[in-house]
Amino acid sequence: MVFSVEEIPKPDPAPPLRVGLTFNLKHASLSDSEDEQAEYDRIETVDAIRAALETAGCRVELMEAADTLPRALSGRPVDIVFNIAEGSGGRGREAQIPSLLSFLRIPSTGSDETTLCVALDKALSKRLLATYQVKTPRYRVVHPDSRWKGGLSFPVIVKPVAEGSSKGIFNKAVAENETQLKELLEENFARYRQDMLVEEYIGGREFTVGILGNGAETRVFRPMEIVYLDQESAYHIYSFQVKKNYKTLIRYDCPAAIPEKTERELMDTARKIYDALECRDFARVDFRLSPEGTVYFIEINPLPGLEPGYSDFPMLAERNGMDYVALVRGVLNAALKRHGLEFCLEQG
């Protein structure tokens, strides 16, 4: 059969990529703990991610990480899940949704359940990374039913061992002596009911490094410095209160005013940690730079917040020339390529 140019059949358009967006939403709470839902997202963040994906032609299904999620996943088939869910309860909570998706053989963005479990436990990740010669402040893990046995130099900072988003790190998180330490430990044991990480406080400057991608295509962003505006304080802590009032208490410098050698060390160490923990698609790594110029690893977040205009990861990406829409699409693109899926979104 011969067709004229006007009559040549056009191929059917490719079906849209079906993306499930899993998340934990902030809800009204009766708890007295002001940081109880610090890790959870506002609906505005969920909507911002959905918009970034929909403008690339994706069909997005919102799936809150509640008891109904398994049924939702089976009832609304998706090609891939964009996961920002933090889970609930216990130090394995960030692995809950990735484990479910792995069990159901549904591709998803971000690191797998094993990496998320190791990274959330600050002490466990430090012990593992010590085998890669990653320098970290000296620390001890204190159990609720044990006593402080010393071995560290004061001042020390006290943190719940398996929390994120600065939960449990308040402005008075530093102890200068054993009496103050005992009070901090008792208060935190009662509030968080878990082991505490007691770590030698490192003065100096604070940096965070973002990473996007996998393998040879991995991009390490230039470090962003958290600059504390109150220079009179004895201790500078990126605490829960500071993050809530970041517009008046701190500023973010990126690129940071540091020597090229120091910048390269921060970026290389972040990549080393990312690879050692087998992170996938994206993560953010936090450091302290001592007055003597020593780089100390503090912690890694392989499930960093994506709240536009607030979370560190999109903030540092923007200062590295990647806007919010391109960042969200970049995370999904990295996961699509890793899973061998044919879809590829424009970076914006």
Q: Class of the largest domain in CATH?
A: Alpha Beta
Radius of gyration (Å) = 22 Å
How many DSSP-defined strands? 13
Helix content: 25-40%
What multimeric state do the chains show? single chain
H-E order:
EHEHEHHHEEEHEEEEHHEHEEHH
| Count of separate DSSP helical elements | 11
Q: How many structural domains in the coordinates? A: 3
How would you sum up the major sheet? 6 strands, antiparallel
**Mean model confidence by pLDDT:** 89
C-alpha geometry: globular
Low-confidence parts: none
The CATH topology name of the largest domain reads: D-amino Acid Aminotransferase, Chain A, domain 1
* CATH architecture descriptor text of the largest domain: 2-Layer Sandwich
Structural class: alpha+beta
Topology (elements, then pairings):
Elements: E1 18-23, H1 43-54, E2 59-64, H2 69-75, E3 80-83, H3 96-103, H4 113-120, H5 122-130, E4 139-142, E5 156-160, E6 174-175, H6 178-192, E7 196-200, E8 205-212, E9 219-220, E10 224-228, H7 240-244, H8 246-249, E11 250-253, H9 260-276, E12 282-289, E13 295-301, H10 312-319, H11 324-338
Parallel strand pairs: 1-2, 1-3
Antiparallel strand pairs: 4-7, 5-6, 5-7, 8-9, 8-10, 8-12, 10-11, 12-13
Give keywords.
single chain, 348 residues, alpha+beta, Rossmann fold, D-amino Acid Aminotransferase, Chain A, domain 1, Dna Ligase, domain 1, 3 domains, six-stranded antiparallel beta sheet, four-stranded antiparallel beta sheet, 11 helices
